[in-house]
């Protein structure tokens, strides 16, 4: 069941209705969610996938109980062993399904050749997300942050919560799980706001992201395209990824809001980021939060790392060593989490480079800025920073867009070998209309991108758009909603006319 | 909460209304308005048992056959149902519609899609044109269902609400989209009887019609199972009602070589089904009829008014040779719809400067 | 102990007046690796364990909050 399908919309709305209808019955809402999660998993990736997920959840659940028992009994080493065992198993599951798919296929062929039929490898949906949740869960129990869940079904509902199983956000037990145990009353305001958010999410995904996608795909496929045109395609790709991912997240968050379950935000106006460090505090925030809590700080505050830092003689390096080390580790892993292949590793290193140099060279940058008499509060400087950050990120996307490192370099060669800023004319002479979108569609695409940027800026200025809409009279509200729905119906990229494009972040 | 639920219902209602309204504007429009709906309606208003010849096929036949001329020449009445696109399935359905009102003596068809599939998913505009212009609702529904059965990318829902499939239409909206679909053209002349009557002159590069235009190297076309199925249905349907089927191939100079290449296959097909074949697309025929592109065609495939007059006369004679057709000239039952409109026809010919001789 | 903590803080950032400031995190007076430095130094000096969850604005915004954090960690040890 793809997020971008009528089936999903109908399913989600049906669940919402049943959910509040079952509110009168004890545990009714939990049962409805359990059923919904099961149906969703089976409809999306099949029964085998459900079996694998159930197994993973069971392992994590029992591990949690065992770790807690050991912790409460003060058996520190036993607890530590159980904890690390659980982490390693979770990571192993993640790595196996993510990285060793190809190996499995070889194994499958090998065994088939000897007459042993091995069933196809299923890649369960949401693996990359819920394994991280499980690791966080084990960690929190080990550090006595919260008690272990005693009821398997409760834990199952939490882990397999269908809105976020597809592409996050990565939910942490302490914040999210208790909400499933409450009885939720339907609130007109929450449901309206949730619907609004989902509507906006669908516009971003179906109208903006997929429209950009057509153009980008066509330009990248064209071997003859290069120079500024290809560079512009990558710029558009940045917007596509943002619209796609954040659009999907908005749909999910809106749906969850309708069900009165609040999840962590994943985006906070990343387009206005003025440095790479800031970007990662605004983009995919649930992943950032996980990495910060369970990787970055553990490394930085690790006694062995602290001891090692002390032995560094240079006073400046001593200060920044652990932070830099932690950044590098985190970002390389972030890169790898996004996909298999050396291009992802390089992507991680690329991000790590900018984040760590911002830390390492901080004082020097300050001096340079002072020397150039740059007013750090000037709007022009802030704009420059945003553009610079955007360019750096766009360049980083070369690694993510290509399938592997050779393809990345070929893409870069095509772009920069004959690059010239004068080639900017290709944006105005109709060249773009040769790539799958006609003039009007291109205009609509740019309008969509401007809308995207505008909303980000408004959010950054703390303008609460949904509340503003809610405060209008009913006629104005209905007009806005109808326009939004029809924008999706008329301008949406869906149906047999366009080949299907699923969410990019769903492949994780 | 109750107020909220009511609001939701009202919203859904408003949405449905807007959707239906928008659908009325933003649906896939066929190109080439050829008064198909008008022709269908006017045909249904003809006196019972007054049509001898029914013509189904594509644009070359649409351009070629003037029922009023065959009447004038040999007293044979008829109606031209050919459309500007080729398709075997739509021809079949047009025939079904036509036979609801009349039982002609002969159906002439160009069998032009024998070697082309022309499937719904590739040529939706043709199918929509015929479906939308179909006055008979039951037949229309049947056709829609059959199209959806044949085309796996189409469902009944997506046919009725094409906006669910076609979203690029918004960028192609023209004034035409805001006009109603089904209007009988009040200015449609009574003498036209479905014929094309295109009075343009030949504008392309001059080309002398010589025998080498029929030269071909290889006969590569293969029969289309899809189209052959429907053509066979057409033949069967006619036979079951005692109607003769005659194959007619207009003189399409552009594809002379193609026709020459396929002649053997077509001949075999017609012979197997005992269908007489009047093939006007040969060098001998063109010579016999004295055709040339500059005077008788408006492009290399389609005859203009003068050409159609020549061919319709020839058709009148050739048809009477192949079968027994009554001469209705002088029959008072046919006077109102045929004899009396002849002067109008001649006046119009004078107006456009075409001689009827 | 307050003086001890103040010493640690000023050794990391001599330019900041920790007795006065009340928005060390909220007003971005301390940078991220100042925070790390301070936390690791406190961990060293008092032999306590501070983890990611403790690194919140409310625990580090001013001298009093930091003292409260250290005391709670000492008590819990």
Biggest sheet descriptor of chain C: none
What's the CATH architecture of chain C? Orthogonal Bundle
CATH fold annotation of chain C: Non-ribosomal Peptide Synthetase Peptidyl Carrier Protein, Chain A
Assign the CATH class of chain B: Alpha Beta
Question: In angstroms, what is the radius of gyration of chain B?
Answer: 22 Å
Number of DSSP E strands of chain B: 5
Number of helices of chain C: 4
Count of alpha/pi helices of chain B: 15
- β content of chain C, as a range? under 5%
Helix content of chain B: 40-55%
User: Order of strands across the widest beta sheet of chain B?
Assistant: 2-1-3-4-5
Which CATH architecture of chain B would you pick? 3-Layer(aba) Sandwich
Assign an overall shape of chain C. Answer: globular
Element-by-element helix/strand order of chain C: HHHH
Highest CATH level, the class of chain C: Mainly Alpha
What is the total domain count of chain C? 1
What does this structure look like?
Chain A has helices spanning 6-21, 28-72, 76-99, 101-113, 127-142, 152-159, 162-165, 173-180, 188-221, 227-258, 276-282, 285-300, 303-310, 315-338, 342-360, 362-371, 379-401, 405-416, 439-460, 465-471, 474-491. Chain A is built from 21 helices and no strands. With 508 residues, chain A is mainly α. Chain A has a domain at 6-186. Chain A is globular. In chain A, 72% of the residues lie in helices and 0% in strands. In chain A, helix 6 (152-159) packs across helix 8 (173-180), helix 12 crosses helix 14 and helix 14 (315-338) runs antiparallel to helix 15 (342-360). Chain B is mainly alpha-helical and 357 residues long. Chain B is built from 15 helices and five strands. Chain B has helices at residues 2-25, 36-44, 59-64, 67-74, 88-101, 124-132, 137-150, 156-160, 225-240, 256-272, 283-289, 293-296, 305-322, 332-335, 342-352, and strands at residues 53-56, 78-80, 106-109, 244-249, 277-279. In chain B, helix 5 (88-101) runs parallel beside helix 9. Helices cover 57% and strands 0% of the residues of chain C. The mean pLDDT of chain C is 83. Chains A and B meet through helix 9 and helix 21 of A and helix 1 of B.
Task: Name a few traits of the molecule.
heterotrimer, A: 508 residues, mainly alpha, 21 helices, globular, disordered C terminus, C: 77 residues, Non-ribosomal Peptide Synthetase Peptidyl Carrier Protein, Chain A
């Amino acid at each position: 069941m793809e997020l971008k399908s009528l089936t999903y919309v109908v399913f989600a709305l049906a669940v919402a209705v049943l959910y509040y209808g079952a509110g009168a019955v004890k545990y009714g809402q939990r049962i409805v969610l359990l059923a919904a999660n099961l149906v969703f998993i089976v409809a999306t990736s099949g029964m085998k996938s459900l079996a694998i997920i159930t197994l993973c959840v069971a392992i994590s659940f029992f591990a949690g109980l065992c770790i807690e028992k050991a912790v409460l009994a003060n058996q520190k080493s036993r607890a530590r062993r159980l904890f690390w065992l659980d982490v390693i198993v979770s990571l192993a599951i993640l790595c196996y399904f993510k990285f060793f798919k190809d190996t499995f296929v070889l194994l499958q062929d090998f065994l088939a050749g000897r007459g042993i039929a091995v069933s196809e490898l299923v890649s369960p949906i949401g693996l990359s997300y819920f394994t991280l949740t499980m690791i966080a869960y084990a960690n929190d129990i080990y550090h006595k942050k919260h008690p272990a869940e005693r009821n398997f079904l409760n834990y199952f509902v939490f882990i397999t919560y269908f809105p976020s199983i597809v592409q996050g956000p990565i939910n942490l037990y302490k914040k999210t799980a208790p909400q499933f145990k409450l009885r939720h009353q339907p609130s007109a305001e929450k449901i309206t706001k949730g619907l609004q958010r989902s509507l906006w999410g669908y516009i971003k995904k179906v109208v903006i992201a997929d429209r950009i996608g057509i153009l980008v795909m066509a330009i990248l496929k064209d071997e003859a395209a290069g120079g500024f045109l290809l560079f512009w395609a990558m710029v558009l790709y940045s917007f596509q990824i943002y619209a796609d991912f954040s659009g999907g997240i908005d749909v999910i968050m809106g749906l969850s809001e309708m069900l009165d379950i609040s999840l962590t935000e994943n985006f906070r106006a990343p387009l206005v980021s003025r440095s790479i460090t800031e970007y990662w505090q605004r983009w995919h925030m649930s992943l950032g939060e996980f990495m910060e809590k369970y990787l970055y700080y553990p490394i930085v505050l690790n006694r062995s790392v602290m001891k090692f830092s002390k032995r560094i003689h240079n006073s400046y390096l001593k200060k920044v060593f652990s932070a830099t080390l932690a950044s590098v580790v985190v970002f390389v892993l972030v890169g790898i989490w996004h996909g298999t292949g050396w291009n992802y590793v390089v992507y991680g290193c690329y991000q790590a480079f900018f984040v760590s140099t911002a830390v390492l060279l901080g004082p020097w940058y300050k001096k340079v800025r002072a020397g150039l008499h740059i007013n750090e509060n000037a709007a022009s400087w802030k704009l420059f920073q945003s553009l610079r950050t955007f360019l750096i990120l766009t360049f980083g996307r070369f690694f993510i867009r290509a399938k592997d490192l050779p393809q990345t370099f070929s893409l870069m060669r095509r772009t920069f070998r004959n690059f010239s800023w004068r080639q900017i004319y290709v944006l105005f002479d109709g060249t773009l209309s040769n790539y799958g979108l006609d003039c009007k569609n291109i205009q609509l695409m740019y309008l969509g991108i401007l809308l995207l940027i505008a909303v980000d800026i408004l959010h950054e200025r703390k303008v609460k758009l949904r509340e503003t809409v809610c405060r209008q009279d009913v006629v104005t509200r209905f007009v806005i909603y109808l326009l939004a729905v029809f924008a999706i119906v008329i301008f949406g990229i869906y149906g047999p006319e366009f080949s299907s494009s699923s969410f990019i972040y769903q492949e994780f | 909460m109750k107020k909220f639920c009511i609001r939701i219902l009202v919203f859904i209602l408003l949405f449905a209304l807007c959707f239906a309204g928008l659908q009325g504007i933003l649906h896939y429009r066929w190109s080439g308005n050829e008064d198909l709906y008008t022709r269908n309606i006017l045909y249904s208003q003809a006196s019972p048992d007054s049509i001898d010849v029914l013509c189904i096929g594509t644009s070359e036949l649409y351009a070629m056959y003037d029922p009023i001329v065959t009447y004038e020449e040999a007293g044979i009445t008829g109606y031209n149902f050919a459309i500007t696109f080729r398709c075997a399935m739509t021809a079949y359905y047009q025939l079904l519609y036509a036979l609801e009102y009349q039982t002609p003596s002969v159906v002439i068809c160009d069998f032009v899609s024998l070697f082309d599939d022309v499937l719904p998913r590739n040529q939706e505009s043709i199918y929509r044109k015929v479906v939308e212009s179909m006055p008979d609702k039951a037949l229309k529904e049947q056709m829609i269902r059959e199209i959806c059965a044949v085309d796996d990318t189409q469902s009944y829902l997506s046919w009725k609400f094409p906006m669910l499939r076609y979203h690029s239409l918004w960028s192609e909206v023209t004034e035409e989209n805001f006009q109603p679909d089904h209007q009988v053209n009040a200015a449609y002349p009574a003498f036209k009887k479905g014929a094309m009557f295109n009075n343009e002159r030949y504008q392309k590069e001059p080309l002398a019609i010589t025998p080498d235009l029929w030269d071909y190297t290889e006969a590569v076309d293969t029969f289309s199972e899809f189209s052959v199925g429907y053509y066979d249905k057409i033949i069967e349907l006619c036979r079951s009602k005692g109607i003769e089927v005659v194959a007619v191939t207009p003189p399409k100079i552009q594809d002379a070589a193609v026709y020459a290449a396929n002649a053997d296959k077509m001949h075999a097909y017609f012979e197997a089904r005992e269908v007489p074949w009047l093939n006007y697309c040969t060098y001998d025929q063109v010579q016999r009829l004295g055709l040339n592109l500059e005077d008788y065609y408006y492009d290399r495939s389609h005859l203009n008014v003068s050409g159609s007059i020549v061919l319709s006369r020839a058709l009148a004679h050739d048809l009477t040779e192949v079968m027994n057709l009554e001469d209705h000239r002088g029959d008072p039952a046919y006077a109102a719809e045929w004899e009396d409109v002849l002067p109008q026809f001649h006046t119009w010919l004078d107006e456009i400067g075409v001689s009827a001789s | 102990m307050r003086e001890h903590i103040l010493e640690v803080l000023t050794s990391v950032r001599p330019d900041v007046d920790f007795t006065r400031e009340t928005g060390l995190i909220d007003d971005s007076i301390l940078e991220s690796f100042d925070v790390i430095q301070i936390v690791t130094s406190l961990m060293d000096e008092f032999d306590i364990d501070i983890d990611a969850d403790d690194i919140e604005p409310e625990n580090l915004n001013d001298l009093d909050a930091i003292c409260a954090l250290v005391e709670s960690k000492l008590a819990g040890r």
